[in-house]
Design a protein that fits this description.
With 180 residues, the chain is of the alpha+beta class. It has seven helices and four strands; from the N terminus they run ααβββαβαααα. The structure holds zinc ion (ZN). This is IrrE N-terminal-like domain-containing protein.
Amino acid sequence: MAFIKKSERKHRLDPEFEELATPKDLLDLARKRGVETNPINISQLASELGIVVRYEPMSDEDSGQLKKDKKSGDWIMTVNSLHHPHRQRFTIAHEIAHRIRHAANSDHFEDKTFFRNNESNWMEAEANQFAAALIMPEEAFTKFVEEKSAKVEDLALHFKVSSMAVRIRAKSLGYEGHNA
Ligand SMILES: [Zn+2]
């Protein structure tokens, strides 16, 4: 990992993604293309964005990676096939965030276990926030809590994510006491 000075941040977006810079934009696109959004079919969305998604066994601490193929120019996402499908969903959303927001900065991202120490890098922190908002949009999250259940396990089952991801999302949306 390299350090990047904040002043050197390049936030140029790939021109093809100028209109798709936020989780909300991607959810709108998904609806337009007939991709399920409640909750989001994240692997189908990745395909709609032209990203090739592959599943390969990796060591447990590796979640996945995103790489631009030098010959074809294709963006290839590799997801740890040994992880639980709910963890894979977050990985895919996280790599989508790198593709959409950070492709001007790097053409190779490698991701270890999320939510540990990897948020020291601004791109990792942003990708995690982006992924959480894509899979658990604020409106849908609030609606589920108010109308169905506020239990971490129920939210995790509904959004098909880990309970850790639910807890972090709840906290960032201002909910407290989600230790049940
Ligand atoms: Zn990352």
